[in-house]
Each structure stands twice: as C-alpha cells, then as structure tokens.
Amino acid sequence: MQDSELLTSNSQLSTHKVAFLWDESFLWGLMAYRALTGLGLPFDLIRAEDIKTGALNKYKMLFVPGGWASNKIKALGETGAAAIRDFVSDGGSYLGFCGGAGLATTGKDGIGLLNIKRRPTKERVPSFSGKICLNITKHTMWDKLPPQPPLIKGGSNSELRTPNSKLVFHAWWPSQFIIDDDNIKILAKYGDALPDAFSSDLNVGDVGSDSRWEELEKVYQINLNPNRLKNEPAVIEGMYGKGKVILSLVHFDTPDDINGQHVLLNLWEYLTGEQTDNRTQSTEHGRSRFIPSLEKGGRGGCDGVPEFFTMCAELISLGERNFLWFWRNSMLLQWRRGVRGLEYNTLYIMMKAISVQIAEHRAQITDKQLDEIKDVLVPFVEKAKKLLLLERHALQKGHITYERCDDPEIKKLRIELFSESKSHGGKFKELLDEIDKLLFSLLT
Length: 444
Fold this sequence. Notes:
This protein is α+β, with helices and mostly antiparallel strands.
C-alpha cells in the first residue's frame, strides 16, 4: 500500500459514529489518522468550530489525539468546552490520548470531564519516550491481544496482570496524573521501561543504575529516572454524567505497534457499542498490514511540490549529519537536548503528507494556498538551518537546553522562530497553522 492510498479521505469509511478533533494535533493528529484509517476504523475529522456549532450531536464518541492541551482549549474556547461536556454528560463517549487526555482534566488547560490533575513538570519525568511495560486490570480494551513474550519478573499486586506475561506499549513524552476521585478506575499502571527507551536524550539501557540516574538528574536539572514512573496511572476510565471517559498517556496509535492496533479496535467497539470487522486483518506475519512506514528522511513522495518537501528534507538531513537527531520509527525523531526536535519532526512529516496529497489532488489546490505556505516556509528554513548549526557548536562548548543558552544570536533566533513558549509558537506556529489548514482540507 502506498502513502497516497493510506492518506485518502476518511469519508468512505465514516459511519458517523466517531468525531476526530483535528485542531492543534499536528504530528500527533496525523499519526492517529494513519493508524485509524489503516485499521479501517470509521470517523469524521472535525474542527473546534464544528463543535461550537453543535456538530457532536450526530456522533457517539469524540476522539482527541495528542498535542498541547493548552492550545486545544484555546481553539475550543468556553463554547466548545461546554459543548463537549454536554455531549459526554448526555451519554457520548470521550477518548483522549496524551494531550487529548490532558484536555479532559481539571485545571486551566482542561475542561473538567474527570476529577484528575496533571502533575507539575518539576514532579514528573517530563522527557520519557519509547517502549514501556504496562500492568493492567481486567477490561474489554485488553481483550484478544496477540500472545505476549514472557514477563521480566517484577510487581506483586495480585489485581494486575503481571505473573506470566507483560504488555509493551509506547509513551511519547507523557504527562502524569494525580487522581483525586475514588470512582475513577485505573486500567493500567506503568511498569518497567524497556532498554531501548529514552529519557531526554539518554538511552535507558545505557544508563542502567539508579545512582547513575541520580548523577545525571543533577546535571540535567530534571527528573530522568524512568523508575519514577513505575506504578503511576497510565490509562484511566471514569464517568461524566452518562458518558464514558477513557484517558490514556500511552500512544496506542504508534506506527507498527501491533498491541496498540488491537487496543484501538477494542476501544472503538467498547466506546461506540458496535463491532468492527477488521480483527483478523490487523496483522500479517507479525507486522501491520495497514500501517506501512513512511520513508525515513529522503525526498520521496514529493511530486507536485518538490521544492517544499525538499527544503524540509534538507533540514532533517542537516540535523542528521550534525548528530542532532535520528529516526526512532517512521514518524518520530530522537533529538539531542538543546534543539527543538519535535518542531522540525512535525514540519517534515506534515509536509510529506501534504506532498503526497497534492500529487493526488493538485486540481483542488490554488497557487495562492501554496504561495501562502512558501512565503513563510522559505525564510523559516533558512533561519532554522543557521540556528541548528549555532546550537550544534554551542553543544560542543557546554550544556544548553531548548530554552536556556547564553549566546545572544541563538536567543534571538529561537524567540523569532519558536517564541519562548514550551508549546508551539513564533514563526513556526504561523507556518504550522498554514500547513495544517491545507492538510485538513485535503484530507476531508
């Protein structure tokens, strides 16, 4: 299956049961889109403006993928947030992954579907990414999973599924929950991180001992030890009015995650009340049939807008040859602490998706739409290349982070391109919004 086949409009699949909130998801929205369409799961892409005008009335479930919860709630406004609360209270289901899970919490960046909070950054392990074991409680979402490898010994809670097997999934820089409500069910807790996972830019297997993690935490000045995650809630379920709410800090939509594919099928059945027909088709010879890998790097798939995609591909190549990042899977980079790897990762993957779509639907795209992107993309890429090389040299001289560096030229470029916000900002956000607007129109 080619990328162009996978990234077709979901209108052929939709049975108007699930709404997929696209706003402020970007890379994470595209990752979820690919996983769901690959499994043939029906949904409609909608925007915050649709929710504000009553679009949820015809759906059984709202799915909110990853992304910055703070930006999602800004897009929704109080009108959109109230519409979601009314939808769930009246019996609709809510499923949120990572940032979509954070949106459902209490606090300034949440709409308050469940009485939980997110841990402050200083109390979390804010930069964990990769494979991690889950200790699960009995629930429909874990049914019919493929045979699991033997468990690495550990854990003694008899309620959790630990004695003879382990379930491995992926977490990508997750938040952490503080649960204040005894009515909320913990469906999974974190177990051991696998050796090929990372905390910040440190490989978990290479660091090893707690004493070494303690030393590194003093240098990095953040919590790094993945053992701090153990027994923390990873997936939870609660009720808001008549509606079910499932929030996951684990990404079941990770490319080529066979366990995740089965969980997605289970969640669609559980939260919509309808059976899917794709159970026997989800895997073939141990690999996904429906989630082929995007080409890592390179310049393939760019017919129609070669200059756009080539610029983004060259930016990624620059980072690779300067040892600033490498590919973890077909959609996610691992970057060194000190650069904005997620932003460049997002730009590349979304521009590749656009290049594939434009090759298929060039007649639907106006020159004005392309020019609006080009006008922002060209100067952004040139300044980003300069910034990356400056950061590369600064890393040779000492410890810097994406937000802390004494070099005035680096500071100036960072503020212009990304702002001082941890969430997307600056010229990057301006560019991303234009790309996102075009991609949404192509996918729908």
